[in-house]
User: Which sequence fits this backbone?
């Protein structure tokens, strides 16, 4: 691994080294998920440098930083979505409830059932609203019969705050909804699998402010039951929905801490520059 | 327009320059559209000419001339004994009966040459019609019956007005006395054109009035059935593996290059391969739809694989992400989401591949499907021929009946093609409607 780093471009290495150690407390009590010394490579290019970070239960952690800083990459490591990219290589330790998720014995299918994901662009299946939500439970055999499944679908749609808007047209195509509704449908679809952690990769970047507000409200409600990690480009959004914030720069976790502290009194110069809009 | 050479010194002159160029831009656009329209109408016109000429030439083949004869089926002339068995019925002298009936209709004909000319009014196939009737019902022996029997090629041509009667007698096959007899029959209403059922009910024959398309049509159907059953699943499976599961390395690159090259290999090469491998090595029967289908599968596979891969590639990755993110396995992602969305594209590729296979002649010549086969094939190992090969064979023959049958066979081929494509388009619509 050291060999790899030596081969990487010197200038970037130097800059990364100059960033120093992460400022702030990376650890929490009773973490749901935990990253220790995580490096991620795309072929020879290193995308993430030795990140330590905990994700706590009943809490929203926001990951912010300029484009290409590795926040989405880290998020996709948390449910092994990066497995689909053949050139991607992850080292270090990532755990869920203390178990290594990159262990050979860990089944990515089971992992993804426990760690759900909501994507940047709303991506409902080209099926009916009902089928969209029922897909996950059916896949994992979570329902014993039709009534059970109906129940899961309705509950999930309710939790995602979209049930009242679609209850009369559950058979209508999910792709026919508006962008904000589609994203909430995707959240309902994720919830339907009863995950323990929900990862959100810029879930509001394709939505208008009203739809965004609805999703943010929803995230706040979901926090009661799930551990949530959200990647966002909007600092206002990070400030509104999260309890902790992590600032990434060039693949390095620069600073992490309580959202209030980060936004009012950042310790690292780069964090300050970024959140005050001077850079990034 | 010298303005273009001037330097745009202010915004005003830049606007001027744009305005000056506008006219030329629009003219170019108009010209381009005109080219496009000309191309489209040109090709439509050619298509129309093609279809009209084939239809005009082929339509007469759907009509066949029949002559009414009073036939006496006496055992003596037929050369039959009492209670004849099937073998005897097959060998009986039906020609004699027909000749007698003709002579009875025209008692004036005495000379040997005239008699010969008279006999030529009837098709050589007329005896087989009688044969079939008698085998179906041996009770007919000894009775007198009135039958409509097929006329010969020349009489048929004369009835359809193809024979040029203005030519001197020596220069035409259909002589004056024959014309007189046909005219007599016409006045007695004993010669008529009827719908040519034979064309759709029989296989090939040396006599145009006895030749039908059924053998080639069934050969084509059986061959394409084998082709579809082999190439569609194999090609789709290969495409799915290469696109969704295979690692990207130099081996898969090599395979991809080879598939692309195979799609461009001249089809006769596949015929040679089929001859060497399927017939000479595996000893599969010659001229069989099974071997034809195998060879055409080889040819169709690359086409379907390439289009299937393109269709799979065009499914948005967000759908894969969504399913994976919910905990679907890779196989489930493919079969629940990617494949249904790619199916319309895959079907399009399959239609193209099958249409190519339907029209293919060269590789089938190599494996003996060019043989003269009279029987309609009923199984995959029966000797058979296919529509394009049949057309190719008939186009070579000089008889007037075969000239019109060639065009008629092309019409059948086109109808088959259209039916096949319509079915595929219907299927595609069905899958597309699922959003």
Assistant:
């Amino acid at each position: 691994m050291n060999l790899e780093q030596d081969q990487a471009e010197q200038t970037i290495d130097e800059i990364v080294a100059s960033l120093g150690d992460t400022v702030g407390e990376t650890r929490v009590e009773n973490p749901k998920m935990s990253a220790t010394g995580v490096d991620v490579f795309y072929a020879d290019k290193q995308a993430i440098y030795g990140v330590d970070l905990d994700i706590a239960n009943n809490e929203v952690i926001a990951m912010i930083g300029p484009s290409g800083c590795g926040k989405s990459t880290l998020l996709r490591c948390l449910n092994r979505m990066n497995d689909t990219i053949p050139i991607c290589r992850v080292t270090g330790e990532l755990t869920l409830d203390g178990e290594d998720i990159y262990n050979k014995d860990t089944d990515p299918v089971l992992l993804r059932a426990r760690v759900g994901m909501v994507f940047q662009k709303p991506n409902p299946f080209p099926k009916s609203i009902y089928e969209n939500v029922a897909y996950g439970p059916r896949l994992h055999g979570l329902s014993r019969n039709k009534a059970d499944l109906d129940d899961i679908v309705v509950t999930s749609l309710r939790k995602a705050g979209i049930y009242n808007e679609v209850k009369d047209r559950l058979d209508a195509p999910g792709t026919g909804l508006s962008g904000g509704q589609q994203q909430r449908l995707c959240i309902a679809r994720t919830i339907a699998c009863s995950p323990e952690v929900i990862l959100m990769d810029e879930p509001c970047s394709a939505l208008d402010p009203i739809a965004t507000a609805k999703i943010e409200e929803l995230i706040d409600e979901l926090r009661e039951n799930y551990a949530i990690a959200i990647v966002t480009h909007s600092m206002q959004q990070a400030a509104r929905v999260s309890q902790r914030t992590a600032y990434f720069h060039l693949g390095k976790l620069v600073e992490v801490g309580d959202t209030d502290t980060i936004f009012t009194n950042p310790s690292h110069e780069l964090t300050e520059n970024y959140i005050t809009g001077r850079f990034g | 327009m010298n303005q273009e050479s001037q330097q745009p010194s202010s915004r005003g002159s830049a606007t001027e320059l744009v305005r000056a160029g506008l006219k030329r831009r629009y003219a170019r656009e108009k010209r381009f559209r005109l080219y496009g329209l000309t191309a489209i109408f040109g090709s439509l016109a050619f298509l129309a000419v093609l279809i009209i000429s084939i239809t005009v030439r082929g339509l007469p083949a759907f009509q066949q001339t029949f002559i009414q004869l009073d036939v006496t089926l006496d055992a003596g002339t037929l050369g039959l004994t009492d209670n004849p068995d099937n073998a005897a019925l097959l060998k009986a002298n039906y020609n004699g009966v027909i000749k007698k009936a003709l002579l009875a209709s025209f008692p004036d004909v005495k000379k040997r040459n005239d008699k010969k000319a008279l006999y030529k009014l009837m098709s050589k196939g007329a005896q087989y019609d009688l044969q079939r009737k008698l085998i179906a019902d041996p009770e007919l022996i000894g009775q007198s019956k009135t039958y409509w029997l097929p006329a010969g090629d020349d009489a048929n041509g004369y009835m359809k007005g193809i024979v040029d009667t203005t030519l001197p007698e020596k220069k035409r096959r259909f002589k004056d006395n024959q014309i007189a007899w046909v005219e007599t029959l016409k006045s007695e209403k004993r010669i008529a054109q009827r719908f040519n059922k034979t064309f759709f009910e029989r296989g090939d024959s040396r006599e145009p009035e006895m030749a039908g398309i059924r053998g080639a049509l069934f050969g084509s159907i059986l061959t394409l059935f084998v082709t579809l059953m082999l190439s569609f699943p194999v090609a789709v499976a290969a495409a799915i593996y290469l696109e969704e599961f295979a690692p990207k390395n130099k081996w898969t690159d090599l395979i991809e290059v080879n598939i692309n090259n195979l799609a461009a290999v001249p089809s006769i090469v596949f015929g040679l391969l089929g001859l060497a491998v399927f017939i000479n090595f595996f000893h599969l029967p010659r001229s069989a739809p099974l071997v034809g289908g195998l060879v055409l599968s080889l040819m169709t596979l690359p086409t379907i694989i390439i289009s299937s891969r393109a269709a799979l590639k065009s499914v948005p990755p967000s759908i894969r992400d969504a399913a994976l993110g919910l905990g679907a396995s890779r196989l489930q992602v493919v079969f629940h989401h990617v494949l249904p969305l790619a199916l319309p594209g895959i079907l399009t590729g399959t239609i193209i591949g099958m249409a190519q296979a339907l029209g293919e002649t060269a590789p089938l010549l190599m494996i003996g499907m060019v043989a003269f086969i009279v029987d309609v094939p009923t199984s995959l190992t029966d000797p058979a021929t296919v529509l394009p090969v049949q057309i190719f064979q008939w186009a070579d023959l000089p008889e007037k009946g075969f000239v019109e049958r060639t065009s008629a066979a092309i019409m059948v081929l086109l109808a088959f093609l259209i039916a096949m494509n319509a079915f595929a388009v219907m299927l595609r619509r069905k899958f597309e409607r699922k959003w």
User: Anything to note?
Assistant: Chain B has a mean pLDDT of 89. Residues 2-59 of chain B form one domain. The longest strand of chain B covers residues 63-72.
